[in-house]
Structure formats: C-alpha cells, structure tokens
Amino acid sequence: MSATRTRGILTAVTTLALAASVIGGTAVAQAANNNAQHQDAHAGSASHSDPDTALADAFNRLDRTTAWQQTSKLKLNFPTFHTEGIAYSQDHIFLSAVQILEPTTKFPSPQNGFDRTPGKGIGHLFVMDKAGKLQKDIILGEGDMYHPGGIDFDGTNVWVPVAQYRPNSSAIIYRVDANTLDVHKQFEVPDHFGGIVLDKQTGHLVGNTWGSRRFAEWDLQGKQLSTWANPNFFIDYQDCQYVPNSKMLCGGITNLPQTPAAGGTDATYELGGLAMMDLKSHTVTRDVPFQQWSTAGHVATRNPFKMTADGDHLTMKVAPDNGDEGNGTEILSYEATVAPAK
User: Fold this and answer.
1) N or C: more exposed end of the chain, with fewer CB within 10 A?
2) Residue 301 DSSP code
3) 45-337 maps to CATH 1.10.3470
4) Closest C-alpha to 93, from 85, 101, 105, 104
5) Taking the domains of the chain in order of start, what are their residue ranges?
C-alpha cells in the first residue's frame, strides 16, 4: 500500500472520530475506525472471500428453491409482549418489544392528520446473555412514542427507533452502548420510523417509515439528508441490518387477503420474505420469499430478523411469536447453503 493511500485512510478515520465526538458518539467513531482497519487488512482480496462482503455475496445467490432447515429453538422465559427487532453483540442478545396498555382505535375519518388514537404502551429493549437469560430491561420512549421498531448493532452501539403506534406521527432515535448499556437519546424525527441501520461507509443513519413505504437518511445530529420512496411492494420490512458496502438487508411480512372459500370473508395469509437494498442507488437488488412457520403459526420473518454468512452457509435468527402466543417467544435458527459463486 502506498504512503499516500495510508495517509488518506487515516485522515478519513480521524474526521469520522472528531464528528462523532462532537455529538457524544465516540463509540460510533470507534466502530468506523475498526471497519476502516478491517477493510484495509483485506484490501485486494476477492470479494467472495472477504468476510465483510460474504453476506451480500451469499444472499445474492439465494432464491426461492433454497432449502432452509430449522436447526434450533431458544425459548425465552420472561414476558416479551409483542416482539419487534433483534440484534447480537459479542456478549448480548438485544430484543425490542412493545407492551400494549391501551390499543389504538381507528377514527371514522382522519383527525389532525392521524388515522387513529395514540393508544398507550411501554417500549422495552431486553438485554440477554447468549443463553437467552434476561439481564436487563431497558425502558425506552416518551409520551405517545412507546413503540420500538427494528434494531441494529453497528459494532459498538445498538440503534433503536421508538415511534408512535400510528403512521405519519413521530419517533425518537436512541443509541444504546452495547457494553455499558448506557442510553443516549440521539434525536427526534417527525414521522413514524420502524427500523434503522447505521451505514458504516457514510456514517449516516437510514430509517424506514410505517410499512417501509419511505426511507430517510440523516447525519448523526438528525439532519435529514435525503428521502426516497420504497420501489418495492413485495413485503413491508420489519427488521433490518447493515451489510457492507452500503446495503440494507431486511426481513418482513405482508398480510394478503384470502378467498372466502379459503378462510372466510376477512381471512388473510402471511407472506414472508427477505430483501436487499442498495443505499447508494436506493434500489432493491434482490428479494426472496420465505415461507416457514413458527410454533404459533406465524411466518418466520414476521418481526425480529438477523442473518449471518460463513462462506456459502447462511444462518438466520428470527423471533416471530409474541409472549402470549404458542409456546411464547422463541428465537428460531434457520440455516441454508447456497450454490458456490461461479
């Protein structure tokens, strides 16, 4: 590597660290620093052998015929309410959930820009050890903003949006230190955002609104830098994760109507799926249906979702069932091997 390139990398990392320090986010800068060093160590290697891009490469070889096998169930033995997002650090499992105290009620016609009442609830971020034992219950939210969404871990922090439980409303973006479990209120945004990732290439946050119909990008001070419509209508994204380089991998669901003969006039079925979005071009580069089912009969990608890759082998963690359904909340593991890259 040339001295010029080395100085360029060090300058970029230093700039990120200074920016994060200004907003009290030095941990974000450390994550960016670690990422830059990792990319430097693997410079020149083929993309299919680079651990940073293994997930994107393997996911791009996933299709509807891929054979998934459920390999484990981890039963959670504490009240989990309605599960939302999941993330894994070196030491912890993080699970977001909403506890409903008063359900929302639809208005006959919109009132003050809202289609329903705010309801009441409590937002939880459960912190567990790797065996699923509860270590801490972090309460998040303010006022009508009590609904945590999909979450993501950037190597240092867990990012959690907590929104009103209705579209076109408002949300708080939280940053939780994965080691100390200290909670930092990063900023507020004037809409319901139900999922978030940190783009390690840009240092910016990307979130998706109610039903994942719109995306927004912010700097770490909360300044909106761009927004765009979801070009895809296959599923609504429920929980997402960052994937190098500048990609967003999501799991989700849509409820589609059944014919009366299949289940009655109001019956629906759950269509599950996975999707990869390019955060530079704002396009969905690949999406694949996923139709396997939980103990309570929900499609597996209903809410919490995370995926990892080891070469051609994919592992997916999901927790589709609420605490009062089926056998309670279980973290399910599914594994599959995709065809080798050509």
Assistant:
1) C
2) T
3) no
4) 85
5) 45-337
As a whole number of angstroms, the distance between CA 154 and CA 30 comes to 10
Quick: pLDDT tens for 64-90: 999 999 999 999 999 999 999 999 999
| 83: exposed, middle or buried (Cβ count in 10 Å: 0-12, 13-18, 19+) | buried
Q: Which two tokens stand for residue 117?
A: 């009442």
253, 272 Cβ separation under 8 angstroms: yes
Global confidence as pTM: 0.86
Q: Of 87, 110, 83, give the one whose Cα is nearest residue 99.
A: 83
Q: What angle do CA 171, 123, 324 make, to 5 degrees?
A: 130
Classify 317 as helix, strand or coil.
strand
Q: Tens digit of pLDDT for each residue in 279-329?
A: 999 999 999 999 999 999 999 999 999 999 999 999 999 999 999 999 999
Nearest residue to 294 via CA among 267, 266, 314, 323: 323
